[in-house]
Amino acid sequence: MKIKDNSYIPEQVVLEVTNVCNFACQGCIVHGPQKSATRLRGFMPESVWRSAIDQIASWNKPISLMTHGAGEPLLHPQLQKIITYASQYSYLKTGFLTNGMRLNEAWIEFILSSDMDWICFSIDGIDPNTHAKVRPGSDLVLIEKNLSKFLEIRHKKYGGKLRVLLNMVGYAEVAVQIPSFIDRWLGKVDTVFISYHRNPPQSRRFPSVSTHRKPCHLLWKQMVIAWDGRLGMCCEDFNIDYCLGHLNSNLLHTWNHGQISDWRSQHMGGNFTHPMCQICDTWDDATIQLEEKFPELGYRVAARASQIEFIAIDLSKLKVDMNYVRCLVQRLGFTK
Fold this sequence. Notes:
14 strands; globular; 10 helices; alpha/beta
């Protein structure tokens, strides 16, 4: 969102409350078996998250505030305080991604009674054995129990309040489970994402992108604040290798001057040789490559470079066409 001259306000802010995690997922650059991120682990101090939220709210513009990053948000001992504090500002639409392991009933009640806008669960498949293989440290039986309880309480006590999203990474070990995964959860949750597995930092490529390279939308639309108050280049800068500055200075000024201004100019000039940008396809995620609607079945489908989205639009009609889903995931390269 441009405000004046070459200054912009981001549409979304990633407020990484922690980069500590209780899983070691196969594709994770920070915690996985082939991890390469070296930055220190920690929890965002109260002085940092209060300053960040106050500054973001002062922009007086609608902002999507995502309180996750390279870790599990529910591990932060002050997460409830953070969400409550952000909720006092009507412009901030808050949500986070979670693996669901620590989602007990107390957390469920807090989240549903808060002013959070959305929550996204990360679950890879429907088989506990393969789930444990691609997400070491996980217990799929417990996670599904937690999610089912969350959905039950949301429906009975809160009338469907708060958008519930679900993301599955299409690892080779679990790709065959994608159709059954969608059939199991679509309609119980509002949207199911099936994401491609990549291999960062060596490659941030997706199987299919547009032939014409465009400037990356993240440079203009997304601000990333690491747990220690440093600003990263974007959500692909897992190790904060390209630090823009620190929260101690004026947040918006830092995000609009110096290195990031140079990177924007380079992108606008067709120069994508930045070490991270030249191996990354996230720039194409702003483009919807495929969109199909099935009003008679109660859902629609949208495909981007990074994932397929299955969105429930009419629960009274919802019925997943399994043959279509099988053909689609094969056509888009998830299965052979």
